[in-house]
Amino acid sequence: MRPSDTALIDGKAFAAGLVARLADEVLDIRAATGLVPGLAVVLVGEDPASAVYVGAKHRQTMAIGMESFVHRLPAATSQAELMALLDRLNGDAAVHGILVQLPLPAHLDAHEVIAAIAPEKDVDGFHVTNAGLLATGQDALVPCTPLGCLMLLRDRLGDLAGLKVVVIGKSNIVGRPMAQLLMHEDCTVTVAHSRTRNLPDLCRAADVIVVAAGCPGLVRGDWIRPGATVIDVGINRIEADGVSRITGDVAFDEAGHAGAITPVPGGVGPMTIACLLSNTLTAFRRRHRIPASALAAE
Questions:
Q1: 295 in a domain, yes or no?
Q2: 4, pLDDT greater than 80
Q3: Does the reported pTM lie above 0.85?
Q4: Same domain, 156 and 266
Q5: Is residue 109 part of a domain?
Q6: Which residues are annotated as a binding site for NADP(+)?
Q7: Per the annotation, where are the binding residues?
Q8: 221 and 265: one domain?
Q9: Which residues are catalytic?
Q10: Does pLDDT of 296 surpass 60?
Q11: SS3 letters for the chain?
Q12: How many domains does the chain divide into?
């Protein structure tokens, strides 16, 4: 079992603190400008997990004083109908952030949908404009999960410059933007994936491992260098002896020699919605040209 001297990175507590700070800033915004940031979330179909996520986003958006606009569309919604809704939301001055819950029903083109969201309202950070801005080191709206991972790493390790980091996973949602963020922190980054050779040896040389492969228990304990920091993004539901449980991409009970590790659940997961709210506030500030420092000085 994992020894008690391995530090757990408590994403739930960090996210709660971030959300509290965002709520204070939203209150300052209302007092100083009379304006309120607004987030629109679009859900197409009745996928149970997506419905749960959308409900959680709505509740947290409202809880910190932002406006929440939830659009629930039937599964049979056409591409043209969805694009028309996005066009209306792009032009709605009360909406500062737009999120289309993925996955979409199979008949809808997700790439076309993401491309239709105005980049300045793309609080998921998936639009190619934001991806390009991130890749070139400019101000971008950054995908929420890697942004949350970076916050946790900074909080745990402070200055990240010079650290050797292995990112396992190359998706546009986590792996690629995570690597970009870490390079901007002056880390030495290796992006690994299912075709990578000698993956255990790469991990053993790393100061930090970020795992977003969607493969339960992929990273074994003997892959982790003593004292290394491990960020487990994986959320996998597995069945064993008739019992369902959530597990990550790291063999958690084998990681007792890590310096610090995120648990699953309770690690990276809570950061995603917190960073979505943060991105919405960032989009609002950019729209109205209100620096965060100016609000703090009010």
A1: no
A2: no
A3: yes
A4: yes
A5: yes
A6: 169-171, 235
A7: 169-171, 235
A8: yes
A9: 57, 101, 124
A10: no
A11: CCCCCCEECCHHHHHHHHHHHHHHHHHHHHHHHCCCCEEEEEEECCCHHHHHHHHHHHHHHHHCCCEEEEEEECCCCCHHHHHHHHHHHHCCCCCCEEEECCCCCCCCCHHHHHHHCCHHHECCCCCHHHHHHHHCCCCCCCCHHHHHHHHHHHHHHCCCCCCEEEEECCCCCCHHHHHHHHHHCCCEEEEECCCCCCHHHHHHCCCEEEECCCCCCCECHHHCCCCCEEEECCCEEEEECCEEEEECCECHHHCCCCCEECCCCCCCHHHHHHHHHHHHHHHHHHHHCCCHHHHHHC
A12: 2
